[in-house]
Amino acid sequence: MARSLDGVTDRISITNPDGVTANPQIDISPNYAGQTSITNVGTIGSGTWQGTAIAAQYGGTGVNNSGKTITLGGNLTTSGAFNTTLTVGASTNVTLPTSGTLATRSGAEILLNKTIDANNNTLSNIPQSAVSGLATSLAGKANATHTHVSTDVTDFNEAVDDRVNDLIVAGTGVSKTYNDATGVLSLSVTGGGGGLADPGGNGIAVRTSSGVTVPRSLSSASPGLVITNPDGVTANPTFTLVNPTTKRAYYEQVIYASNMLALGTGPLTNVSSGSGAGLNFTAETPIGYLGITTGTSATGSSFLGTDQNYYTPGSSVKLAIEMVIVIPTFSDGTNTYQAYMGFTKQLGNAGNYIGWNVQTSAFQGRSVISSATQGTAITGTTATAGSSYRLRIEYDGTTAKFYLKPETSILSDTDDWPWALDGSNVSGTYTTGVAGITFPSGPYALGFGFYKAVGTSSRIGGIKQIVISKMY
Q1: Which end of the chain is more exposed for a tag (fewer CB within 10 A), N or C?
Q2: Which of 460, 184, 432, 421 shows the shortest CA–CA distance to 337?
Q3: What pLDDT score was predicted for residue 396?
């Protein structure tokens, strides 16, 4: 009888059940959903467990820990038949001690062999009574931050006295004595070293170098300044101005001065050009004057003053030239000339100078370079032919001050100061670089010149007084 193997739907499937073409193959149906119980199983080599949670008695946890894992680096053993709950508020990484008992925050435990690092820990809200023995240990002790008067601190003054004494070290020429019993520290100068040594004489002591002291005495460089008790030995030095409003010595040191009472030039130089040009003397009452004449040549000239290379004013050298002059005849339509007085670069013409100029009855203060007036001329008084005028220029290389006044009285002595102190005789001031002012460069000749440009008539410029000085 022919037979054929039959499977069970969705449980067992059979391939070639009658064995005609090949041996039958029996397999579990891929649709097999399993069964409610299996009493014995062998080793399960692979697969994914998707069944119910495994109870604790079968080696599981009995809890669905979906998405959670337990990783053990060693054996985990608990002792004691009590429940254990670990509560964490966030991801936690804790290192447990190898042995011992963990402390709690609220329980009463005794800590053994522990040190609290004050730099990394803060203890707060701990009442003194909660720390056994602390009240006894702190009895009579002050807070870390507190206020005391010095008398509340035992030996405070003594400690400060000793510390100050230690800090102060006597240097060269200084001695130190400390009386610990009285609390007095005494310092005294013994001399030598960097101090002032006895100069070995009377007078004002001046230290010239380390340990070197010499006596000094004040002195005056001006006759107008008198110093009383200059060495300070018997009293303090005093300073007295001698006739400050009337004597020239109060204002300046006279280099050269002369009243032109007779023909002669002394240390002055006369430079003349042209037929008949030079010097002559004109008699007047009470004194005459020394005249410089242009002669009869159409371009005649004459100059009376210092050598051209004598003087160079600067920041430390302020010079002045002062003259009393008279012009008997001014320029007219037939004879044209000009007189100039001050600091000049060229002898015998009016091409480069700083000073006063007069041509047709009007005085003007000027700075002239290559015959060109710099800036605007300073206007002086209108001159009268044959009258005398006192002119003055002060110059320090940067500033030039112009003085002018008629000389109506008897000619003053060269030692007197003839100028008003209120500035009323000052006609104007030039400063280099201001309002287009430039000065011709030095050195200069100081004097008075006469220069004729047109005509053949001889003309004279008269000099009654000249003072050249260095100002203080």
Answers
A1: N
A2: 460
A3: 96
